[in-house]
Amino acid sequence: MMAAADPVQPFGRRGLCPALSAPMRTGDGFLSRIAFEADIAPRDMVALCHLAERHGNGLIDITARGSLQFRGLTLESACVLEKDVLALDLRLREGLAVETSPLAGRDDAEIADGRFLAEDIRKEAERLILHEKLAAKMSVVIDGGGRVSMGDLLADIRLKAVSLDDRTFWRLLVGGPESRALSAGLVETDAAAGAVLSLLVHLAGKGPLARGRDLDRAAIKAVCGDRLLDRVIVHDATAASTPWGLMTTGKDGFALGIAPAFGQIRACDLSDLCERAGMLGITSLRPAPNHSLLFFGASSACEALLDTARASGFITTDGDARSSIAVCPGAPGCASAFLPTHELAAFASEQCAPLLDGSFTLHISGCGKGCAHPAPSLLTLSGTADGLAFSISGRAGDVPDGVLPFQHQRTALSRLARLYEKEHKPGETAATLFARLGKQAIGAALRQDDR
Ligand code: SF4
Q: Domain limits at 199?
């Protein structure tokens, strides 16, 4: 197998957009990534799709963070792609990644609009040229709450809005997805951007290997000082998910949330959808977290586009079994993969549809790195040199609960579906059922032990 993700840098380590100017070697050629800081017009996405076909293999990924990836490039075509993408003059991310919900500022369910904090952090980080000193993958997430879940995104530093006594505060967290981050305390809105910047400056001083997860409570307190409030933090348990289908945005706006199955789509299919969106009068769109796409326009236009998207095989509703599966590109797209993950995911979404009820995420990973779902999952299947490892309530890369021969992978999923069919009680979610059955019963079904 080839080495994984070997970066090449035709234009130096950092260009206008680091990932675009530093394509990565993968199993199907080089890969370039762009991230958007504003909506784009449907015609812009059509143009990007044409570039994906002209310079790559015509496959586009929408990543878990809502970036766009062009696959199957050569080193030469990646350079031309960069030039052509920049010529479109879109608002692409430059420097440090400071991410907010794509619905921020137009989401009636949000606690606070995080864009202003993000802008302050971006501007000051740029002035201090922090991105040149920080780890290349350093990321800051400003989560104002609302319909789009940002909790699963890895963040070195995270601000999460909470409402206490009718006022907005921000929880400061470092490292990991939100569920595994170190919660450092609360900050006032006025002090929030400054606290994040102080931590970034602190990390920059430690060099390009330092990450948010390296910070402990004492270091954060020393850096942030009085900006960390002496208040009990009430855990914010509001759960957000990806907003599929039609939704209102703000006072008069309307939006449609859809996703290609398993985060990947042929450029020609995406281009067709965006051309249709343009014809319907949809004015803008935005790739969004959880491999999704948000289109903005009049309600009638969004409704008509929903029909087209549904007929074209996009995920358009909560109940779609495919949206309960987190899957990485796998083989042949990634050189580290031990299995074609999308094939297994497609099989699982059909065979195990009743148990993929949204109560848990089935994680299918091409190898132990677990790119698609860094957090533990009720069931993780990952490729290894010895076969398909399964982990119950663990991560890809954890010591597995068992390893199946590759030729048994489909039968194992079929048996899991039968276990669900036999044992599940009316009204019980799959997550509750599996918790009730316990590891042993699930493992026995996957291992195909006769019981
Ligand atoms: S988890 Fe998937 S995408 Fe990540 S390195 Fe492994 S095979 Fe490649």
A: 104-227
